Amino acid sequence: PTPTPAATPTPTPTPTATTLARWLRAAQWAAAAIWLLAYDDSNAHRAMADAGELLVDLVRHAEPVTQTMAAGVAVRLILLPTTLHAAVNDLGLVDALVDAADAPSATAQLRMMCSNVVAFLTEAAGDSPPADADASAVDALRASEGARAIARRLEEEATLERMLAALVRSSGAAGLQEVGCRRIALLALRSRRKCRGVLETGGTSAVLDLLRREKLTGGGAAGGASPRATLAILDTPRLLRFALNALLNLSVEENNQRWLA
Prior knowledge:
Blueprint: H1 17-37, H2 41-61, H3 64-79, H4 81-90, H5 93-102, H6 108-124, H7 135-143, H8 145-156, H9 159-168, H10 174-190, H11 192-200, H12 203-212, E1 214-217, E2 228-231, H13 237-250, H14 254-260
Helix pairs in contact: 1-3, 2-3, 2-5, 3-4, 3-6, 4-7, 5-6, 6-8, 6-9, 9-10, 9-12, 10-11, 10-13, 12-13
């Protein structure tokens, strides 16, 4: 009998740029939907069970928009008392978030979200958690030895201080800079050691650079006066107030005093 010739496999067509853009847009909307749905506890548990490892990959490697959406889900899982232990210990979401926020390509929004998680972990694991902290979330954190170990490591590595300094340097995002300055001011109230940590991680210099930044105003008309330099922060009174408050609180520590002088 004559052998039947093997079928020639049909080559998979290379997707066009338009097709890839559509798939990317769909992925972004899907990640955004999961983020919003995760605010329901049962959906949060399902997201972790069915897509936990995918979530870690997206936080670490996705393009900025999808990465930010995935980070939103990760933050929710870490802050939810019933998923905190597994999210921190089994999935390693804290390390994924910190690595993503430390990357040069990280958006300011991603850094702010990550700073929320780090602030919760380091402050809630301490002797005096914030008064507005969720009591059940604090209990869940303290019940997980793995989560407490990560919180201690973040504290030792001054992770929060580094992230707040990065927020203050978020040029063109006054709202995020306000968050950074306000949190530095609150952090400085915790201890003189925290004040030193802010100085050593560049937070003090970031706030001072914010106050020093200049812009040119006036001039431009034919025969008119030359442009003159003014402080750019005068255009944002709230940011000015938060920045001055941060420096005031930091100045109680002697190393910051010498540096500012």
